[in-house]
Amino acid sequence: MKTKTLLLLLAAIFWLTIPLAAKEKYAIGLFHFNLQYVAGDYKIERRIIRESLFPVLQFFDQHPQYKSDIEIQGYGIEVLAVEHPDVLALLKKLVQRRQIELVIAHYSDQLFIGYPALDLQRSILLSDEILARYGLERSRVFFGQEFQYSPALATALKGKYDVIATSSDPNSWYHGETQPLVNVTYGGDTINALIGGGRKELNGMQWSIAFLDDGEEFNTKDYNSDFFRLPAQEKENMDHYKKLLEDGYQFVTITELVKHIKKDPGYTVPAYPFVPEGTWHMKVCGPYMWMGRQRSGVETDGITRALSYQARGEVQLIEALIGYAARQGQDVTGLKKLLQEAWKHLLLSEVSDSSGWDPWLIEVQYTDNEVATTRKLLKDIMEQLWKMLAGTGGWQVNTKTGEIIPAAGKYAPGVLLATPAALPVNFSVSAQSYTVQTGRINDHLYQMDIECMRPADGAVEIVFETAANGLEYSASCGEGVSVVLPAAWQHDPALALTNGFIYLNNGYSLIKDCTVEHLAATWKVDERKLVFREELKEGNPSMHMRFFVVKGSAEDGLRFANQLNSFPSYQVDKEGSTLRYSRIIPE
């Protein structure tokens, strides 16, 4: 008996001492280069290219054993082509030998979760045209400035991208730990998302991140080094790559890693729970950081975002008129080129840094300047269109359908045309003082204009009561559908309301006019309150907003919101030598 026990023990020890099959080990990198890091400062733009981007590309050129993803905006490719052809040539070389996977998500490093899907889609289209011009191939990986995320990217990116690379922040803020690769679903569409903070140990593999940050952080300390290259910091990051290689990691692109995860034994890509739009560092407010929270003293969040929102409608108006002229047999080739330039300047105006974190005055002014340039281009186009179409009485223009009909009545700028009446939903205001006009336009539509004066602490709040069992809204870039916001989360969601729409679940929809002040709303779930908050600095004495209340179903509210904000209609006419247009309030 003792001999048998001893033999069994020796056998067990033998099997235990045989090394288990080593897991495959993969490392990825993602360098996010932003030429609009200090939007409007072209000295810094050049320094980023020469002191950071170029040395990073040279590092990979000298070490072909390393792979990585590099993300840069389409605008950045244009700048490289015109001003830094040597840098573009090296980038192209690395992309062509499949060592660098090129990630191009948008033309401008815009706050795309602050605007309807159309803007992001045009941004992608412009970037793709630039890439084709210079013989570059982008991947089907999407990465957003500030780690911006929206579940509606599943719809907005359909047919263009296969995977979103994002952080774990939005998910962990609302739900906790996540798997590394998940399926995000919205409106019947699905896309993969690779979650940077997701689980790293899988059944047959493990993975790590060699670098995931602003590309400038690889070899500069941004502001702290004035964007000049720091050899010690660069060496530290290079040594990290060397250590991963010594530890047996194989360097792969994000696309390759996704394939490896999908092949991992026993791994099934799970459905991602619904997570509203978000960014990295959700603990500092998510979308609200760019749409209401003001820290630098020169910010004007609501006005800054509304300026771009006004201009986007005007670009859509001109685009519809150009389409109409083309159908009338006019040669609009030159006008289309001007329109493309207008789109570019509009998207530059939507840059995130003009209203987030601690923008410098030059960054706030950047949006103002780009909107002014957009409007100058549109004015030139409109003058030519008026002559081309021999307009006399003017037109009504539907930017959604492109339909043009003769104008009915005179030019009428958007003013309160309602019969004075109380709003059918309860609201309250926190401010030094405020003035409000409320009225009924018809049996199912109400309007409210409110101006709030800055209190001593600067924080103005407009608060609407909501029902107790959840709301409905459209996630950023997903304005085509209404989705349910459940009433059970770890934290209160901050919502960009890109089409202004939210169904209060009490028979009424609230619609923010995004062209007046475009602010995020926070739903205080336990208190059943929807809060529009703006932290005004001393130089900003007031906050002015306009809301509409639609009686009826969520679908009724959604339809009105998209007609008002996402795809507005306009009336165009001329008085003397002055061309005028006004947005038509839907009824």
Overview of the molecule:
This protein is an alpha+beta fold and 587 residues long. 34% of the residues lie in helices and 24% in strands. It folds into 3 domains: 24-150 and 205-271, Alpha-Beta Barrel (TIM Barrel); 301-405; 419-566, Golgi alpha-mannosidase II, domain 4 (Beta-galactosidase, Chain A, domain 5, Distorted Sandwich), CATH 2.70.98.30. The protein is built from 13 helices and 26 strands. β20 and β21 (508-512) form a beta hairpin. The protein is globular and about 75 Å long.
Q: Provide the structure class.
A: alpha+beta
- The domain tally reads 3
The helix content, as a percent range, equals 25-40%
CATH architecture grouping of the largest domain? Alpha-Beta Barrel
CATH topology of the largest domain: TIM Barrel
Radius of gyration from the alpha-carbon trace, in angstroms:
27 Å
Tell me, briefly, the overall form: globular
What is the CATH class designation of the largest domain?
Alpha Beta
Number of strands: 26
Q: What's the assembly state of these chains?
A: single chain
Write out the CATH superfamily name of the largest domain.
Glycoside hydrolase/deacetylase
